[in-house]
């Protein structure tokens, strides 16, 4: 098989013309020569007779690359690791155990189910020519010496050694003289690389902190082992000063390499994984900001390195596997991201903090707080140079609100509000609406709170829905300030009156097609601020366009657990657009114990989650905009199960995610039937009487069969144990 070029995943926008360079076996740690024309890499491939890691070179200038293109550099004996070109491009550094034993040392077995790396004490660092002749041994010290790299200015070699009693980074001059210890903290410091100006080092480190962690690290090290399951990325000057921890993500963050600007670092991480084995490439600024995902395909992507001119990226991946457990080397053209298209968490925090502040007193439709919020949003739109939706950014509306939810007779109290809407004109044939509602419950004047007797208390609505508004404003910045001219125009719509019955979005939707007949999709973000530990995200409306399910799946962030709800009707503003035959998507992280309570405050927002979701929406909008046709599909009646006709309430806040084992209770309302019967947040309801509950829709179906005063036995699971409680509805 020869090198093949593959079409990049749409979301892997930094990688173009991806080519597979190896074919079968385990191929990793491929690094460029100084002229960028060759690679040195580590290979294990029984089909080629290579049973244990050995070092090979690969000439990238060959017209056809196949398995025969690999040239052996190491001795073929023992085990090798971590090769790197010398400044002349004619010699290669690598570590090997061959001098101590020609046999291949066995890899360590997991201990107590924990994955381990061997720190073979026989490793020494050698320099060989490209024909495989060893010309110099650079280390000769008891214990581990490996992971050697060369500075771009050709003056220094950095490597990892245990010669001080711990795994630290050391440097030496290019000839092996002038040894200096660079790091000193207890833990495994390794996998280092120089910055392009040769002034900095970036490396992975496991720094045990607790007594238990320290003991475990030392005990394993005594057996020449390390457990690489908790590592973060650090930088320091080449003399060890100015040590900084760059990542604080948890799990394994490793294989770092400086971006050509030296202001960013690309690395491999599984911090996102909620289950299983999943490593993706990420990039982060050297100050720890601006984290974003680079790879999306397959479950292992690591060992990234930029070519000397910064135009190529080489990395290892298990994509395009011929057999299970294969890892191959790939090369791609590198395309830098438009900085304007990177979500800025500081912007999200600024927007949410203001909108959810006590100064706005809960943003009740028709209140002074709503007007202040509208002025803030309009000011942001003006700063971005966006056009008004009509003659002005604000679209006023009037309606009647019933202060008694049981009142079905009176016309209600007159009220007014205002949508705030902006337009990005890309001179395109199609338009997409991105929206969220900015109103909330105020001081509970309209009696929508789930907290009893809460009139007069400020309901700040940080999640509901300052989070969604912040997402729309950040997307407005990204789309209006980037260098790309999208294939669609975009309307950024912030609605009021949502809490009183989707009033603002109904008003906009009623005239939308007359004003903008080319609107072909609507994206709604309502409550995206409380992503849970399982990274559960509900996306509604996926059945309203045949292309949506595939787009949602391909663009989802790593580690996310997505529940796709097909229906176009739901408890938020997208419903107003679906009813006008417009395809819709609804992004929602679920209800919680603070839903519609004064406790829905900014301090509880998961900003990493909001950032990931806004990035997700950005990719999703781009993918929709690139479709040849955006086709509307009416969804089945199951969508309407969100709002069935029922006369009773249990008094819980349901988790809208379909977990498959029943309805998960996110919160319980005070002095309502569920609380009075002893049902708690975290319980999983499986039955109401004889009616089976599978998720939120079947739960509402069960409620629709009951009348006030009915008594039923509710079956639920708590901590794995099935329990029952009698409930009077």
State the shape.
elongated
Number of strands: 42
End-to-end separation: 69 Å
CATH level-3 fold name of the largest domain: Neuraminidase
Radius of gyration: 29 Å
Quaternary class: single chain
Classified in CATH, the superfamily of the largest domain is TolB, C-terminal domain
CATH class type of the largest domain = Mainly Beta
Question: How would you describe this protein?
Answer:
This protein has three domains: 15-336, Neuraminidase (6 Propeller), CATH 2.120.10; 345-398 and 412-626, Aminopeptidase (3-Layer(aba) Sandwich), CATH 3.40.630.10; 652-728, PDZ domain (Pdz3 Domain), CATH 2.30.42.10. The protein contains ten helices and 42 strands. A hairpin with an 8-residue loop joins strand 1 and strand 2. Helices cover 16% and strands 32% of the residues. Strands 28, 29, 30, 31, 32, 33, 34, 35 and 36 form a nine-stranded mixed β-sheet that branches. By secondary structure, it is of the alpha+beta class. This is M28 family aminopeptidase.
Compact summary:
This is M28 family aminopeptidase. The protein has 729 residues and is α+β, with helices and mostly antiparallel strands.
């Amino acid at each position: 098989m020869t090198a093949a070029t593959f079409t990049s995943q749409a979301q892997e926008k930094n990688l173009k013309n991806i080519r597979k360079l190896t074919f079968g076996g385990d191929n990793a740690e491929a690094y460029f020569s100084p002229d960028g024309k060759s690679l040195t890499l580590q290979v294990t491939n029984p089909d080629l007779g290579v049973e244990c890691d050995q070092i090979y070179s690969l000439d990238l200038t060959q017209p056809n690359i196949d398995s025969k293109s690999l040239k052996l550099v190491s001795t073929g004996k023992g085990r090798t690791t971590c090769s790197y070109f010398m400044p002349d491009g004619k010699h290669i550094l690598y570590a090997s155990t061959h001098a101590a034993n020609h046999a291949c040392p066995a890899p360590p077995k997991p201990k107590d189910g924990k994955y381990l790396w061997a720190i073979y004490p026989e490793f020494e660092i050698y320099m060989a020519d490209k024909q495989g002749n060893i010309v110099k041994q650079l280390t000769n010290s008891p214990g581990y010496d490996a992971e050697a790299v060369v500075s771009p200015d050709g003056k220094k070699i950095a490597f990892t050694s245990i010669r001080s009693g711990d795994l630290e980074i050391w440097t030496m001059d290019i000839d092996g003289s002038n040894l200096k210890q660079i790091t000193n903290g207890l833990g495994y410091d390794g996998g280092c690389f120089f910055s392009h100006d040769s002034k900095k080092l970036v490396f992975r480190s496991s720094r045990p902190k607790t007594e238990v962690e320290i003991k475990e690290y030392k005990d394993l090290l005594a057996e020449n082992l390390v457990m690489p399951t908790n590592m973060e990325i650090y930088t320091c000057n080449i003399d060890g000063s100015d040590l900084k921890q760059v990542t604080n993500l948890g799990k394994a963050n490793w294989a770092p390499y400086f971006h050509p600007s030296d202001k960013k670092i690309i690395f491999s991480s599984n911090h996102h994984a909620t289950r299983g084995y999943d490593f993706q490439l990420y990039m982060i600024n050297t100050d720890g900001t601006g984290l974003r995902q680079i790879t999306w395909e397959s479950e292992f992507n690591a060992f990234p390195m930029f070519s000397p001119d910064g135009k190529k990226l080489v990395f290892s991946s298990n994509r395009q596997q011929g057999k299970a457990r294969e890892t191959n080397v790939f090369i791609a053209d590198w395309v830098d991201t438009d900085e304007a298209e990177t979500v800025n968490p500081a912007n999200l925090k600024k927007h949410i903090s203001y909108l959810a502040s006590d100064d706005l007193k809960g943003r009740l439709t028709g209140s002074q707080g709503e007007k202040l919020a509208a002025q803030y949003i309009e000011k942001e739109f003006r700063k971005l140079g966006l056009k008004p939706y009509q003659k002005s950014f604000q679209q006023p509306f009037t309606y009647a609100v019933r202060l008694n939810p049981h009142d079905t007779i009176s016309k209600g109290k007159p009220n007014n509000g205002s949508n705030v809407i902006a337009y990005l004109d890309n001179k395109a044939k199609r338009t997409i609406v991105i929206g969220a509602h900015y109103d909330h419950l105020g001081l509970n004047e309209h009696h929508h709170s789930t907290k009893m007797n809460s009139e007069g208390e400020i309901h700040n609505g940080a999640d509901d829905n300052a989070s969604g508004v912040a997402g729309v404003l950040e997307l407005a910045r990204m789309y209006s300030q980037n260098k790309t001219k999208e294939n669609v125009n975009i309307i950024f719509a912030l609605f009021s009156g949502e809490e009183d019955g989707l009033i603002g979005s109904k008003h906009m939707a009623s005239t939308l097609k007359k004003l903008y007949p080319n609107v072909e999709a609507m994206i709604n973000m309502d409550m995206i601020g409380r992503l849970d530990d399982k990274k559960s995200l509900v996306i509604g409306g996926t059945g309203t366009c045949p292309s949506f399910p595939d787009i949602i799946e391909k663009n989802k962030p790593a580690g996310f657990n997505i529940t796709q709800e097909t229906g176009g009707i739901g408890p938020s503003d997208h419903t107003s657009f679906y009813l006008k035959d417009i395809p819709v998507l609804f992004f929602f992280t679920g209800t919680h114990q603070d839903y519609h309570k004064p406790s829905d405050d900014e301090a509880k927002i998961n900003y990493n989650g909001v950032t990931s979701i806004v990035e997700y929406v950005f990719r999703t909008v781009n993918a929709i905009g690139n479709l040849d046709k955006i086709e509307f599909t009416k969804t089945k009646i199951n969508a309407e199960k969100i709002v069935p006709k029922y006369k009773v309430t249990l008094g819980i806040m349901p988790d809208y995610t379909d977990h498959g084992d029943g309805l998960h209770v996110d919160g319980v309302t005070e002095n309502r039937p569920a609380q009075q019967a002893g049902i708690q947040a975290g319980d999983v309801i499986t039955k109401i009487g004889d009616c089976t509950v599978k998720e939120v829709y079947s739960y509402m179906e069960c409620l629709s069969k009951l009348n006030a005063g009915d008594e039923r036995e509710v079956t639920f699971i708590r901590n794995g144990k099935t329990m029952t409680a009698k409930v009077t509805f």
